[in-house]
Amino acid sequence: MPAPKPNNNNKDNLSKSALRRQREREQRYQTILQAAETLFATEGYHKASMEQIADAAEVSVGAVYFYFKNKEDLLIQMMDEIGYLMRSILGTEFKKYGATIEGFKQAGYAFFEDFCINYPERAAIVFRESVGKSALVEQRRKELFDKCTGDVLNALTAVSENEGITFKGQFSTEVIAVSVMGIYERVAYHYLLWQNKTEDLKHIGRDAVAFIVGGVKNLFEEASCI
Amino acid sequence: MPAPKPNNNNKDNLSKSALRRQREREQRYQTILQAAETLFATEGYHKASMEQIADAAEVSVGAVYFYFKNKEDLLIQMMDEIGYLMRSILGTEFKKYGATIEGFKQAGYAFFEDFCINYPERAAIVFRESVGKSALVEQRRKELFDKCTGDVLNALTAVSENEGITFKGQFSTEVIAVSVMGIYERVAYHYLLWQNKTEDLKHIGRDAVAFIVGGVKNLFEEASCI
Amino acid sequence: MPAPKPNNNNKDNLSKSALRRQREREQRYQTILQAAETLFATEGYHKASMEQIADAAEVSVGAVYFYFKNKEDLLIQMMDEIGYLMRSILGTEFKKYGATIEGFKQAGYAFFEDFCINYPERAAIVFRESVGKSALVEQRRKELFDKCTGDVLNALTAVSENEGITFKGQFSTEVIAVSVMGIYERVAYHYLLWQNKTEDLKHIGRDAVAFIVGGVKNLFEEASCI
Amino acid sequence: MPAPKPNNNNKDNLSKSALRRQREREQRYQTILQAAETLFATEGYHKASMEQIADAAEVSVGAVYFYFKNKEDLLIQMMDEIGYLMRSILGTEFKKYGATIEGFKQAGYAFFEDFCINYPERAAIVFRESVGKSALVEQRRKELFDKCTGDVLNALTAVSENEGITFKGQFSTEVIAVSVMGIYERVAYHYLLWQNKTEDLKHIGRDAVAFIVGGVKNLFEEASCI
DNA sequence: CATGAATGAGGATTCATTCAT
DNA sequence: TATGAATGAATCCTCATTCAT
C-alpha cells in the first residue's frame, strides 16, 4: 500500500506527540492527493494548476511541494494508489469465489459496480488524465496495466486449472488478458466518463462481462462447440 | 475526406493559376498536418510547440495559423482525417466480404495489419495524444468513437440478419460494440505504442479477433451451446 | 565582435525593408543588453529580474527571451562584448607604441583612464557581477581572463624581444601576466567600485602602472641591479 | 577570534553543566559554519540552500537560524573568521622576521603555501563566493580587504623605516598595497580556484612574491637603479 | 534549545496567438 | 498570402524564513 513519502518508519519509540504529528502528516498528504485527484478529474491535469490544488487542499503551494516532488509526482502517487485500489477490488472479489469462472465474473461486476460507480474520479485519472502526459507517467501507466493484465492472466490460468479445462490450441492468453482490460477500460470510459450513465452501469457491466466470459469460454477446449 | 479550410470554393470558374494555387494550398495544408502529426506522436501534444510544427513543415508560424484556427484545431482536423482513414480501412474490408462473420474478422485483421502497422503515428494520435486534452477535443474523440462503435454495431446487425441468426435475449449489442472497440484500442496501445511489437502484431491481432468472434458467436442464439 | 544571435548573415540580396528590420533587430539586441548591463551593475545579477530588464529596455519579457536564451546567456553575451572592448582598448594602445615598454605603460593607463572611467558599469560586470554566478559563467570568465593574461604575456615577450633584453632566470612570465591582471582588477575594484574615486583614478592608475613596470623591469637581466 | 553569537557570557559563575552547554554551543556553531563553508565553496552561495546546510551540519533548519540571523549572516560570520585566519597567517610570518623585506616575502609565501593550500575552500569564499552577493556582504568584504591592505601598508612602512630607506617621490603606498593584494587574490583565483594547481602553487607563489618584491624595491630610493 | 512543517512571495521560463509589414 | 518578431498571461517551482510544539 503506498505510504506517504516523508516517513521515518520507526513505529516504535514514538512519543504521543510524534505519533500525532505523523498522523497529521499522512492526513495532509491524503488531503492534498484528494484535492489534486478531484481537480485533475474535473479540470484536467494540465488545466489544474498547483495553486488551485493548494487552494483546494487548503494549504500553501509550498506545502504541496513538501509532500510531492512536483506535479508529475502528484499524478504518479495518485496512480499508484488508484492502481492499488482497483486491483484490490478485483482481486478480493475473485479470491472470494475461489478462482472459478464465477469469481472471474464477480470481479468484473465489482469493477463496474464498485470501482467505477464509487470512484468515478479515480476512473477518470487512470483512464483519461494519466494518458500521454509525460514519459514517466506513461511508463508508470504501462506498469500498472501490466500488473492488471498479469492479474487477469493469472486468474484465467487459475480458473482453467481449477476447472480442469485447457485453452484451445495456440491462443495467446496474454492477448486475451489485454483484451479483457481493454473492454473494462473502454466500457468505463464510454458509459461513465462520456455518458455518465452511472445508473445503467450495473446492467452495462453485466453485459460486458457476459461478452468477456463468452469469449473466454469459447477458447476452452471442452466449452467450445463450434 | 476532410477538405482544407480556407477557400473550399467550387472547382468551376477557376483559372489555371487559381487551380495551381488551390493545389498548393491543399498540399501545404497536408504538409503542416503531417508535420504536426509526427511531432504530436513523438513529442506529445503539449511538448510540441507551434514553432516546432512550423519548422518541421518548413513554413512560418503565421502560415500554420492561416491554415488552422489554433493548436486545438490542428489536432481536431488530424483526428477527423485519421478517423476517416480508420473507418475506411475497417469498412472497406467488411464490405468486401458482404457483411459476413468472415468480413467482420477481416476488418479486424485490417485494423491491426493495415492501420496499426502502416500508420503507427496515427494510432498514437487517436489512442494516446487526443486523450484528455480539452473539452472540445474530448467531444470530437467521443464522436469519432461513437461512429466507430456505430459501425461495429451495424456490422453485427448486418451479419446477424445476413446469416439468419438473432442475439440471445436481452443483450445490449451496443455494449458489445463498445467492447470490441476497447479490445482494438487496448491491444494496439499495448503492443504497438508500449511494446512496439510491430512484427508480432499480425499474430496478436489474429488472437484478439478470435477472442472477439468467440465472444460474439456466444451471444447468438444458434451459435450458443451452453 | 559579438553579433546579435538571430542573424541570417547574407548581407547580399537584402531588400531595403529586410535591411531595416535587421538593423532594428541588432538595435533591440543592444538595447536589451544595455538595459541588463545597467541593472546588473546597479542592482546585482540576482536581484535584477528579467521583468525589470524587459521594462528597462521597454520590451516585453518574451522579447528578451527571443534575443537571449536565458538570463545566464544575457550575462555571457555581455561578458563577451565587454571582454572584446577591454582587450581592444588595451591592445590598441599597446600597438600604437610598437610593442615597447612605453606601449605597455600606455595600455595600462588606457585601462584606467578609458575603460574604467568611461565604462564603470562594464567594469562592475567583469570584476564583480560575473564572479561566482554559475559554472558556465565562471568558465566564460576564466576564458576571458585567460585571453587577457595571454595578451599581457605576449606583450611582455614582444617588449623583451623588441628591446633586446631577456628575463632573469627561471621566472614564470605567465605568473607575472596573471599578477598584472590582478593589479588592474583589484585597483579598479577598490577605487572604482568601492570608493568611486573616478576623479583620482588617473593618478591611481599611473601609480599602479609604475609599480607594475618597476616589478617587470626588475625581472629583466639588464634592468636588474640587485 | 569571532565568538558565537548567542550568549557570549563571561566565563565566570558558570556551573559545570552550563560550561558544557556553552562548549557544545560553540561546537555546534562551528559545525554549522563549516558545513556552510564547504557547501558555499562547492555549490556556490546561492545554490546552497539553508536546508542543505542544516543537513550537512546534521542539525535542523531552525538550529541554523538559532545560531545565525539569516543566510547572509552565515556568510558574514564566515568571512570574518576567514579574514581573521588569513591576516593571522600573514601577520604571524611577517612579525617572525621582525618587519624586514624577508618577513614581507615570507608572509607572501605563507599566503600561498599555508592559507591557499591548507584552506582552499576558505580561499574560494573570500575570493569568489563573497563577491557581489549583497550590499552588506560587499561592505564587509570591503572592510576585510581594507584591513588587509592596511596590513600590507603598515608592513611596507615598517620595512622602509626598519631598513632606513624611503619611498621614491610621490608614490602612493596605498596603491602599492592594493596592488599587492590584487596579485595575491588573482594568482590564488587563477591557479587554485580555476586550475587547481595545488602542487605547483609553491613555485607560483614564489614567482609572484618575487615580482611583488621587485616592484616594491624599485620604488625605494636606494634600491632603485634606473 | 531544537525541530521541521508550513508559508508564500518571487522569479525564470514557456508558448499560443497576434499583427504590422 | 506569408512572415516572424513581439506579446504577456500563465505556471511551475524554489527557498529563506517563521513558529507552534
- Could you name the CATH homologous superfamily of the largest domain in chain A? Tetracycline Repressor, domain 2
Q: Topology as H/E string of chain A?
A: HHHHHHHHH
Helix/strand/pairing category of chain A: mainly alpha
CATH fold-level name of the largest domain in chain A: Tetracycline Repressor, domain 2
Kindly describe this structure:
Four copies of one chain form a homotetramer. The first copy, chain A, is mainly alpha-helical. Chain A has two domains: 11-67, Arc Repressor Mutant, subunit A (Orthogonal Bundle), CATH 1.10.10.60; 71-224, Tetracycline Repressor, domain 2. Chain A is 73% helix and 0% strand. Chain A contains nine helices and no strands. Chain A has helices at 16-43, 50-57, 61-67, 71-96, 101-118, 120-129, 135-162, 173-194, 201-219. The longest helix of chain A has 28 residues, at 16-43. The first copy, chain A, starts with 15 loop residues before the first helix and ends in a 7-residue tail after the last helix. Residues 1-12 of chain A have low confidence and may be disordered. Chains A and B meet through helix 7, helix 8 and helix 9 of A and helix 7, helix 8 and helix 9 of B.
